[in-house]
Amino acid sequence: MLDKLRGSLAGALASMGRAASKVVPSPTAWTVIGLVFAFLAFIFYGGGHPFLGGLLLAVSGFFDVLDGAVARATGRTSQRGAFLDSTLDRVSEVAVFLGILLGGYTSPFLVLLALSLSLLVSYARAKGDALGVNLAGIGIGERSERLVVLIVASLLGFVGIGVLVVAFLALITFVQRTAKVSGALGGARKSASTGPATASS
Q1: Is residue 44 within 8 Å of residue 52, measured between CB atoms?
Q2: How far is CA 75 from CA 18, 21, 68, 87, 155, in A?
Q3: Which pLDDT belongs to residue 200?
Q4: Packing angle between helix 79-103 and helix 159-193, nearest 10 degrees?
Q5: Which residue from 89, 88, 108 is spatially nearest to 98, judged by alpha carbons?
Q6: Residues 12-59: pLDDT tens digits?
Q7: pLDDT score of 84 more than 60
Q8: What pLDDT sits at residue 198?
Q9: Which has more confidence, 80 or 13?
Q10: Residue 151 pLDDT more than 80?
Q11: Residue 99 near residue 43, CB atoms below 8 Å
């Protein structure tokens, strides 16, 4: 849902990317800045300050959007950049959930469950893409949605509820993506096996 909204804001994001590229032209640098704020969120979550943790997580999410905008504005989109962006996003997720775990806002089991399911959602997309199945926009709880839920819950002082909602959204999304890839690959296999027969000589 938020990815579709991002598409409708393409013009504004392009302008923002051009402006940011004049300050720091490297998309990777913006990715690293976002990672730094994720680690700051980890510190504040772990220190028992969920409101500040949520604010810093929001800033980290902003830079996560900005790095892509800068890459497009400067023509520096690349497989290397995409790999670094995706990998550091996972590092950010782990850091934030570790902070929540240290802060003791909910049970360790629930934190581990939410983190594990979130990583499985990302894995499903990566594996699907590798197999030629595009999963962009598939699922009700992509990273953007889960991030917003956690930020809002933190700002309102309900981190535990936010983690629970994130786990639920990630579970549904993982199931949706698994079904999508399974169906697509099953259909492709069926088409291959029932393709046009070769003429006999």
Answers
A1: yes
A2: 11, 11, 10, 21, 36
A3: 36
A4: 140
A5: 108
A6: 777 887 887 788 788 888 899 999 999 999 999 999 999 999 999 999
A7: yes
A8: 43
A9: 80
A10: yes
A11: yes
How far apart (Å, rounded) are the C-alpha atoms in residues 83 and 33?
16
Helix (H) or strand (E) holding 52: helix 50-74
- Evaluate whether 153 touches 159 at the Cβ level (below 8 Å): yes
Q: What is the DSSP code string of 71-98?
A: HHHHT---HHHHHHHHHHHHHHHHHHHH
Q: For the purposes of burial, counting CB atoms within 10 Å of the CB of 22, is it exposed (0-12), middle (13-18) or buried (19 or more)?
A: exposed
User: Is 3 known to be catalytic?
Assistant: no
**19 vs 131: CA distance, rounded Å:** 36
- What tokens does 169 get? 């959204």
Tokens (6 digits) for 40: 């700051």
Rounded distance between C-alpha atoms, residue 45 and residue 58, angstroms:
13
DSSP assigned state of 31: H
Q: What is the pLDDT of residues 155-173, one digit of tens each?
A: 999 999 999 999 999 999 9
Contacts for 184 with CB less than 8 Å, ≥ 6 apart = 133
**Alpha carbons 140 and 46: distance in angstroms, whole number:** 28
Structure tokens at 50: 């969920």
